[in-house]
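Me: I'm a chemist; would you kindly supply a protein sequence with its C-alpha cells?

Assistant:
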Amino acid sequence: MEIPVIAIQALIILAIFGITLLIATYCTWAERRIAGFLQDRPGPNRVGPWGLGQPLADAVKLFFKEEFIPANANKWLFIAGPSLAMLTALMSSAVVPFGNTLVLEDIGPIRLQGIEVNIGMLYIFGVVSLGVYGIMIGGWASNNKFSLLGAIRAASQNISYEIALGLSLIAVLMMSGTLSLREIALQQAEPLFGISGMNWNIFYQPLGFIIFLTCAFAETNRTPFDLPESEAELVGGYHTEYGSMKLGLYLFAEYVNIIVVSAVMSTLYFGGFNFPFQNEIGALLSNDPRIAHNIITILGTVVFFLKIFAFIFFFMWVRWTLPRFRYDQLLNLGWKGLIPLAIINIVLTGGFILLSEHFGW
C-alpha cells in the first residue's frame, strides 16, 4: 500500500515538534549540569542516573501544581499570554530544513522539513516578532507592577534588536538571492578550497554572524540581555505571578526559541545540514547514488543537530559567564552599536558582490 506524501509530511511535522519539545525539556537539565560544571558543583544528580530524570520530575511537578490566577488579573489574557508565547515558538521551527531529502522507492524524495516556502526567512522573522506579544500580554494581564515593567522592557528590547537582526539578514540574502532556508543551505554545499560541503556563509559574513548572534541573545531574553525577567530587580519580571504549567510554558518557550535560533544560525552561516567531505564520504560508503545520497542526508541531519547542540551549549556558557547589562547599556548597544554595524556590513557586502561580478571572482 502506497503511503500518501502528505501523510509522510504530517509525520515529519509531528516528529519535528516532538523532537523540539524533547530537546527543550532536557535543556533544563543541561542548563543546570553546565552551571554546576562551571561553578565546580555536581548539579542535579539524584533523580535517575546523572540526574536524567530531573526534567520529567519537574514536568510532573508543574502539571500537578495548583492553578492560581490573581484576583485582579484579566483571566483570559492571563491564560493567553503563555499559550501565545509557546505557540509562536513552536511555529517558527516549521520551515527549518533539518536535513536534505530522502529518496525512497515508490514514494520519491521526502524533505526532512516541515514546510518549504520560498519566504521561509521572512516567515520566521514574522513569527518571532509575534512572540513578544505573549510576554507583553502576560505581563499586562497579571496586574502586577513588576510584571508590567518586565513586559515593557521586553517590548522595547525586541524592537531595538529586531532592526539590527533584520539588517544582518539582508547581507546574507543579498549573497544568496533567496529567502528560502532550504535554498540557502543547498548553496553552501558547494566546494570551497576543494572541500565539498564547506562553502559556508560564515567565511563571507563574519561581521553579520556576530551581529545576528548578539541579537539572538537579546531576542531570546538570555543573559546578558535578560532584563525582562531580571530577578534581582523585578522579582521574576513578566512571569512573576505565574505558576504551574503556565509558568512552564513560558520557560519551555524560551528554550524552544533558543533551539530554533540555533537551527537558523546553523543554516544561515554554518552550512545547515552540509558537512566537510560529504560527497567523498557518500561515494566511499556506497556505489549506488540513491543509497549514497540517503546516507549523506542522514549524516547531515546528525551533524545539523550537533551544530544546534553546540550553539545551545554556547548560550548556556554565556549565561554563567557574563554579567547582566544595565538597561541604558542594552539600548545603546542596540541603537548606537549594532544597527550602524549592520548597515556598514550591508554596504561592504554590496561592494563585494559588485567587485566579484566585475572581476569574475
